[in-house]
Design a protein that fits this description.
130 residues; mainly beta; 7-stranded mixed sheet; 4-stranded antiparallel sheet; 1 helix; 11 strands; 3% helix
């Protein structure tokens, strides 16, 4: 059984940085496409970044240049480094995963859509204050 667990959220001042972590239990995460999503109160869940776990990553326009996805294969861990945070970045952040189906090259942006993912973590809250 696949289990996705995020950690690393917290409170940070505007302009600051936070790093989130995501671990997949049950399988090697290289068998998956993975993504970060966020949802603020009263808003729809939006894709932040998605990766094929083989060096290709796509980002939402709203975070391009500020957020960076990285991974540690030895720890089976995906990271989201969030820099230059603004009040609009406050949200519950979720890690998601879907089995590698070989379609990344033709449809990478589709993995910013929550419908593309089967497995979800419980979320970790990031709150940015002024």
């Amino acid at each position: 059984q696949v289990r996705v667990v995020e950690s690393g959220g917290g409170s940070v001042q505007s302009g600051g940085s936070v790093r989130l972590s995501c671990v997949i239990y049950g399988y090697s995460y290289t068998n998956f496409y993975m993504a970060w999503f966020r949802q603020a109160p009263g808003k729809e869940r939006e894709g932040v970044a998605a990766t094929d776990m083989r060096g290709s990553t796509t980002y939402a326009d709203s975070v391009q240049g500020r957020f960076i996805v990285s991974q540690d294969n030895a720890k089976n861990t995906l990271y989201l480094q969030m820099n230059s945070l603004t009040l609009e970045d406050s949200a519950m952040y979720y890690c998601a995963a879907s089995p590698n189906n070989g379609r990344w090259g033709s449809s990478s942006r589709s993995y910013l859509n929550e419908a593309s993912h089967m497995y979800w973590g419980q979320g970790t809250q990031v709150t940015v204050s002024s």
